[in-house]
Design goal:
Layout: E1 3-11, E2 27-29, H1 32-35, E3 41-48, H2 58-69, E4 78-81, E5 87-90, E6 96-103, E7 133-139, E8 145-152, H3 158-172, E9 205-207, E10 219-226, H4 228-238, H5 249-265, E11 275-277, H6 290-295, H7 300-310, H8 314-318, E12 320-322, E13 335-339, E14 357-360, E15 368-373, E16 381-388, H9 389-399
Parallel strand pairs: 6-7, 11-13, 13-15
Antiparallel strand pairs: 1-6, 2-5, 3-8, 3-14, 4-5, 7-8, 9-12, 10-16, 15-16
Family: Belongs to the plant acyltransferase family.
GO molecular function: acyltransferase activity, transferring groups other than amino-acyl groups
Pfam families: Transferase (PF02458)
Length: 406
């Protein structure tokens, strides 16, 4: 597959008759939650089949981005410092990078698509970029379309990126864009007096130390698919008859993945292993299981405790650094899960129908897992798992051997 870049340009916000917004609010201060997040670009790809309704041309897609950036202004900004010298997003409307490319083959010739280095040609490189978001639209010889978004994680999480993509698709189709207001730092002010009720060392913060390496073994990324039958089987194993509440599909799949990854790594029963799950603070969860007992603790009280801890000066005094470290390429013996299940990533429609496939870009970090709802919409779940090549075959074998796995 050969990808040829046809054009690359900055697309800036296009405001309505009212003109540009007041520059009174010219910065968005990074919150304490932003500062402990991954300072790296996260890529997502949307694959669209050719439809009777032809995919929109470049000009229409650009116009849609411009209209969306007028509402989601943070993506058109740049990182900098506010008037107090604190890290912030400067709302300077410099725009996002928009790349249009073509592929010399039909999309079907590279199916099924796997998260390999070949994917790198389908999304724009962030090497040396100062843009907070970069977009690439690749048109294949068969008429299929791949839309790739490369956005900095400090600006938004998966939910926020999905909100932008849905708004862009709506604007491209001529549908109104919902109001949007990125959470500001005023929401995350520490309490007085502070109440640090939970331990945040080892969770959001860690001691600074050298990162582990793979000893020369290559990290590979593989996609695994959990059909609705497999999900149901896992739920049945985790929720015996008479259980007060069934275990959710996400928790069952995550538990199974954790067990299989530990087995593939060859961990013995004496090696402690930790599962870290990125929790959406917008919602509350209330299910008592092994994983759920930890997830349920991440409620309003937990977030308030974290804000107090991060603002107390302890981090600086003890020399702690964010646990979300994009330079750490090996997580073994731990596992880190990022879930987009329940987030409508598959509802993005630029006028040629919904994507037949959604996936993350190539991010080879050992022990990192992404899970999403399958594009089929039937309740099945897809997972992208990164492990050392020597462990991947063992993982894939036990991953599909569900019966009796618990």
């Amino acid at each position: 597959m050969k990808i040829a870049v046809e054009s690359s340009k900055a697309v800036k916000p296009k405001y309505g008759n009212g003109g540009a917004p007041s520059m009174a609010a010219d910065t968005v201060k990074l919150t304490v939650l932003d500062k402990v997040n991954f300072d790296q670009y996260i890529s997502t790809l949307y694959f669209f089949s050719p439809q009777t309704a032809k995919a929109p041309p470049k000009a229409i897609l650009e116009q849609g981005i411009s209209k969306t950036l007028a509402v989601h202004r943070e993506w058109a900004g740049r990182f900098g410092l506010d008037a107090n010298g604190d890290p912030a997003i400067l709302l300077n409307d410099e725009g996002v990078r928009f790349v249009e490319a073509t592929a010399d083959v039909a999309l079907g010739t590279i199916m099924p698509v796997e998260p390999t280095p070949e994917l790198l040609s389908l999304y724009p490189s962030d090497d040396g970029a100062d843009e907070l978001m970069l977009v690439q639209v690749t048109r294949f010889a068969c008429g299929s379309l791949v839309v790739a978004v490369n956005g900095n994680h400090l600006v938004s999480d998966g939910y926020g990126r999905c909100s932008f993509m849905t708004a862009w698709a709506n604007a491209t189709r001529g549908v109104g864009i919902p109001l949007h207001n990125r959470m500001t730092s005023s929401i995350f002010m520490p309490r007085n007096p502070a109440r640090i009720e939970f331990e945040h060392r080892g969770i959001e913060f860690k001691e600074q130390h050298a990162n582990a390496s793979g000893g020369g073994d290559k990290v590979v990324v593989r996609r695994v698919h959990f059909s609705t039958d497999m999900v149901s089987e896992l739920k049945a194993l985790a929720s015996p008859p008479g259980a007060p509440r069934p275990c959710s599909a996400v928790k069952c799949v995550v538990s199974h993945l954790w067990r299989c990854i530990s087995k593939a790594r060859g961990l013995d029963g004496e090696t402690p292993t930790t599962l870290k799950i990125a929790v959406n603070g917008r919602h509350r969860m209330h299910h008592p299981e092994l994983i759920s007992q930890k997830v349920v603790r991440v409620d309003d009280a937990y977030f308030r405790s974290f804000i107090d801890f991060a603002s107390s000066g302890v981090v600086e005094k003890e020399g702690l650094v964010p646990a979300a470290d994009p330079t750490k390429i090996v997580l073994c013996p731990d596992v880190e899960v990022n879930s987009l299940v329940g987030i409508p990533v598959n509802d993005v429609d630029f006028g040629a129908g919904r994507p037949f496939l959604f996936m993350h870009g190539y991010l080879p970090q050992e022990g990192l897992v992404f899970i999403t709802s399958s594009s089929s919409g039937d309740g099945s779940i897809d997972a992208e798992v990164s492990l050392f090549s020597g462990a991947m075959d063992i993982f894939k074998n036990c991953c599909y051997a569900i019966s009796g796995s618990s």
